[in-house]
Structures are given as C-alpha cells and as structure tokens.
Amino acid sequence: xxxxxxxxxxxxxxxxxxxxxxxxxxxxxxxxxxxxxxxxxxxxxxxxxxxxxxxxxxxxxxxxxxxxxxxxxxxxxxxxxxxxxxxxxxxxxxxxxxxxxxxxxxxxxxxxxxxxxxxxxxxxxxxxxxxxxxxxxxxxxxxxxxxxxxxxxxxxxxxxxxxxxxxxxxxxxxxxxxxxxxxxxxxxxxxxxxxxxxxxxxxxxxxxxxxxxxxxxxxxxxxxxxxxxxxxxxxxxxxxxxxxxxxxxxxxxxxxxxxxxxxxxxxxxxxxxxxxxxxxxxxxxxxxxxxxxxxxxxxxxxxxxxxxxxxxxxxxxxxxxxxxxxxxxxxxxxxxxxxxxxxxxxxxxxxxxxxxxxxxxxxxxxxxxxxxxxxxxxxxxx
Length: 382
Known about the structure:
alpha+beta
C-alpha cells in the first residue's frame, strides 16, 4: 500500500510544474492582451485628434465657382448672387485703376466667401467670411469678415481691399517706404478719408505747408516727400514757430543728453529756445515729413486717376526716383497733378454738423418738461 501511495505522490509532483507553467503563461497572455487593448484605445483617441486637426486645416471648398476676368472666387449657392455682383465690381476696378500687374497677381489666387460666425458681446454673431486664398491657411493678408446681411457692395469692398494688398506685394523698398500703407489706392476714397486728409493738411504747423496752402505746387510736392531736394529738411519744412509741434512726433537721440533735456523742457513748458535746440539736434533723416502716409495715399490716388489704365503698371515698372515714377504713372507734370489734388482737398473740407429741426424741437420739449417738473416739485416743498 505504501508503495502505491508513494507512486501517486510522485506522479502528482511531476505534474505540478506543468500546471504552474500553464497558469503563468495564461496570466502573461491576459496581461499582453490588456496592454494591446490599452494601446488600441490610445491610438483611437489620437486618430480622432489628427482627423479633427486635418478637418480644421483642410476645409472643403464651397461648391459654386465664380470666375470673371482675373478674379476667381468659390462660394455657396445662397451667397452666389451677391458674390457675382461683388466680383463684377472688383473686375471693373482692376480694369480702370489697376493694370496687367494687378490682374496677374489677382489671378494667381482663389478666394473663398462663406458663411461663418464670430464671437461678440451677445454671443456668436453670424458673418460672411472672406479668405484671401484657398491654397494657404495662414497669409500676410488677414481673413476678413462682414455682417451676414451685407450687400454685394460691402462684399466687393472687402474683396477689393485684398486685391489692393496683393498689388503692393513684391514692390521695391523705395516705393514701399514712400507709400507705407501696404496697399494700392484702387478703390475711390471715402468721405471720411478725404475729410481726415483735409484736416491734417489744414492744421499741421509747417512752413512748407503754408506755402502749399498758398497754391505753390512745388512746395506741396516737397511736403509730400516726392522731391529729393538737397539741404536740411528742417530748414525746408519748418520755421522756428513750428518746432514745438514738430518735436511732439520726433525726439533727438537719447545719447545726446543736452538735446533730450531740451526736448523735455520744450514738451513741458513750451520754451522756444529749448524747442529750437531739440529740433536742431535731429539728424536730417529723423526730421518728420509734414504730411503723413494717409495724406500721401490720397495724392497717389490722384496720380493713378490722372494716368488712367495702366498707371499702376508704370508706377511699379518705371526706373528712377519716386518723383520720376509718379510722373510716369500720371502721364503729366506732377505740379499739374498737385494742383488738382489741392482742389480735391479743398472741396472735401468737412461741413459743420447741421442739427435737424425735429431733433432741436425734441430737445427743447424735453428741456421744458424737465424745467416744469422741477418747478412743480419745488412748489410742492414750499
């Protein structure tokens, strides 16, 4: 009996390692399966993130394709009638004020005009989004918005602004520095722009502008920075009585402690001697132009109007100084263009605000009512 018991125990002991190894293998398989399932879930989450980013970066093009002249736009069916009207207006603008260069730069891009929304104080506001190009998500030209019920005129205005920026891309540094605003004046000036230009022209304290306002066209060209005349800009553009206002927009080098101290006294106390010292310490290149880039922009528009079709091509493609190129663009002597620009400035002088008769009557009525209530309340206290 004992031999049989010993034999059974021997067989059981021989089978135990096999059973234990089987259990260990099963546990390892379960652990590996759990690891695979965990990695699969991580992969699924990351795949969804990648798909979301891809949908954000690669937007589906709107279905309606509108082409006219150099302008190519994609939009949807609900906006198509307004967009067609806007495209026709921009094409006419390019024909009249642009040229082959503006047309070629515009035709190289496809804009999209779609419905979108943007944040506002009251929540999400429906807008019409205008993207400058379908081939590039990020561009030097910003994305533009107009209100959702905007007319074709409003859409054309924003689309024309994109064309104006395209026109100035790649021009040489001399012309870009003179224009400075980064776009070409292809659209007509608004009433607000013309009024602002007149106010600056009429109120800036400058000796050369006083001669310009006396209808000296060559003084106007000098104030606009067109002529490259030898000599000190300070002496050409400003007199002693102009120094105080001039140093408000330009300061001497901080390395010149004496001039900086004089500049501070001039701004604080208006001391004429200090203003003169600070002004004369300015290097020739730091003496500010009497007229800003916004006013120069109005003159450039006058030049392009004078030159007609192809004026912008001549402006960009002609060699020489800024004056030579403006003359080529205008197709006439610049003094004649300057006099016509002066006439336009004078005609855009802002008028005094007229108070409507209904508003005046309503104001008088409310004043009488408030006065009457005050008298009644006073009598009730007494």
